[in-house]
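Objective 1b. Sequence-to-structure analysis of Diphthamide biosynthesis protein 4.
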Amino acid sequence: MLKDYYALLGLPQDATHADIKLQYQRLLLQHHPDKVQQRQEEAKATGSPVMLQDIKEAWECLREPAQRAFYDTSLKESGSYSTPCRCSGEYVISEAELELGVDTVVCSTCSLIVRIHYEVASDGDEED
């Protein structure tokens, strides 16, 4: 399954390049190995800190416009939806799971569970 780099960085998909770069730099400083004690306290409080490698991976993917456009297309085609968890993990559900009636999702890194509420979109172009 494709990682949602926007969720990992805590940004919307329509974030500007400047927003992505600024958030990358903030997270890089926050999770830098020199701040080991802070990261250990975070791990105790949340269960799992954001990994520095994931932050770098997200930046490498989103920093170039052509690569970001390809990633955005791939993300849309994957047919899945995701949102970040407070532990820095994420909740991911696919369209296929929704069609089967699945309405609960477990976080990818902790044991928190969320219930999905959604409505099926209808084509507004249908005529009677």
